[in-house]
Amino acid sequence: MVLTFFIARVIPGDPAASWVGPHATAAQIAAVRTELGLDKPLVVQIFDYFGGILSGNWGVSIHTHQAVLSDIALRLPASLELVVTALVIAVVVGVPLGVISAYRKGRLSDQALRTLAVFGVSMPVFWLALILQMVFFQQLHLLPVAGEYDPELQYSSPLMSYTGFTPIDALFTGNWPVLGSSISHLILPAFAVAAYPIGVVMRMVRASILEVSGDAHIQMVRALGFSERSVFGRFALRLAWSPIIQVLALVFAYALVNTFLVESIFNWPGIGSYAAAAITSLDTPAIMGITLLVAVVYVLANLLVDLLQAALDPRIRLK
Questions:
Q1: Could you tell me how far CA 32 lies from the centroid of its own chain?
Q2: pTM of this prediction?
Q3: CB within 8 A of 69, min separation 6: which ones?
Q4: Most exposed: 87, 175, 242, 273, by fewest CB within 10 Å?
Q5: CB burial class (10 A; 0-12, 13-18, 19+) of residue 9?
Q6: Residue 276 and residue 260: Cα distance in Å, rounded?
Q7: Region of residue 111 (phi > 0: left; psi between -120 and 50: alpha; otherwise: beta)
C-alpha cells in the first residue's frame, strides 16, 4: 500500500484538477489541494491516510466524490457474484476433468485434457471475452453481451435491492424476469473469468491424485478389491482436496483482480470497472481502497484455507 501510494502520487497529473473539473481556476484548484491535503509532504499524507483507515475512513473518491468505502460496498457484490460463479464453474468442470486425466495418465485423452488446461491458464482473458461475445452474441444470438441484466426491466420489473447480489435479490423478491435476465447476462463473463481457474484446478487435481495414488493406504484399497475408478474418484481425490482448496483460495483472490478487463468488456458494474476509472482519473483514494481490499481478500482467503484444511485433515489440527 505504501508503494502504491507513492506511485500514484509521483506519476504526472493533478488529482485536484480532476476533482474540480477542466474549467476550474487556479485558485479553485489550490483550494481543493489544501482541502484534500495534497499540499502536505508525501510522508505526512500517507500517515494521515493510514490514520483514516484505522478510524474507518478510506478517503473520498476524486472521480465519484463519494466515500471510497461506500463505492466499494456498492460495487463489490457484482464482482463477487462474477468471481464466485466462475469458481463454481471451475470446480464443477475442473475437478472431474482432473480426475479423468489422472485416471487415464499417458493416454490420448490425458494429453488432450492437459493441453486444454494449458490453454485455459495461458489464454489472455480479454481475448477469450471478445471471442465469447463474437460467437454467442454476434453469430449465434444466444446470450446477451453487456450489463448485469436487461436495462428495460428497470421500468417493467423494477428490482428491490437488499443484498446487492442481483440474482439473490431477484429470487427472494420473486422477480423472475430479472432473475432470468441476470443469469443469462452472467454466463459469458463468468466463463471468461473461469478459464484460468479451470486450467489451474485441472492440473492441481491431476498432480495431487497422482502424488497420493502410490501411497501405502491407496495400495491397500486396491488390494481390498476396489476398482480403479473408486480408487481415484473416492479415495485418492479425498486426500488431494487439501492442496486443491489452497489453490482455490489463491485463485479466488487472483480472479477478483483479474475481472478488471472482463468487467470493462462486458460493461459489468463491479470493482474492476471502478478501478479502471480510478486509474485513468488519478483517483488515489480509490486506487488505495482497491489495493487495501485485495490485500484483505488475500489474507482472509489464506485464513479460510487454514480452517478448511484443519477440518478436512485432522493431522494438521492444532491441539
A1: 35
A2: 0.80
A3: 56, 57, 58, 289
A4: 242
A5: middle
A6: 7
A7: alpha
Band of residue 89 on the pLDDT scale cut at 50, 70, 90: very high
What does the alpha-carbon distance between residue 102 and residue 203 come to, in Å, rounded to a whole number?
Answer: 9
The pLDDT tens digits of the residues spanning 163-182 come to 888 888 888 888 888 889 98
Q: Measured between alpha carbons, how far is 99 from 203 in angstroms, rounded to an integer?
A: 10
Answer whether residue 235 shows pLDDT above 70.
Answer: no
SS3 per residue for the chain:
CHHHHHHHHHCCCCHHHHHHCCCCCHHHHHHHHHHHCCCCCHHHHHHHHHHHHHCCCCCECCCCCCEHHHHHHHHHHHHHHHHHHHHHHHHHHHHHHHHHHHHCCCCHHHHHHHHHHHHHHHCCHHHHHHHHHHHHHHHCCCCCCCCCCCCCHHHHCCCCCCCCCHHHHHHHHCCHHHHHHHHHHHHHHHHHHHHHHHHHHHHHHHHHHHHHCCCHHHHHHHHCCCCHHHHHHHHHHHHHHHHHHHHHHHHHHHHHHHHHHHHHHCCCCCHHHHHHHHHHCCCHHHHHHHHHHHHHHHHHHHHHHHHHHHHHCHHHCCC
Q: How confident is the model at residue 52 (pLDDT cuts 50, 70, 90)?
A: confident
Which CATH class for the 68-316 domain? Answer: mainly alpha
Average pLDDT in the chain: 82
**Domain spans of the chain?**
2-54, 68-316
For residue 110, what are the contacts with CB-CB under 8 A and spacing of at least 6? 101, 102, 104
Q: Which phi-psi region, left, alpha or beta, contains residue 83 (left: φ > 0; alpha: ψ -120 to 50)?
A: alpha
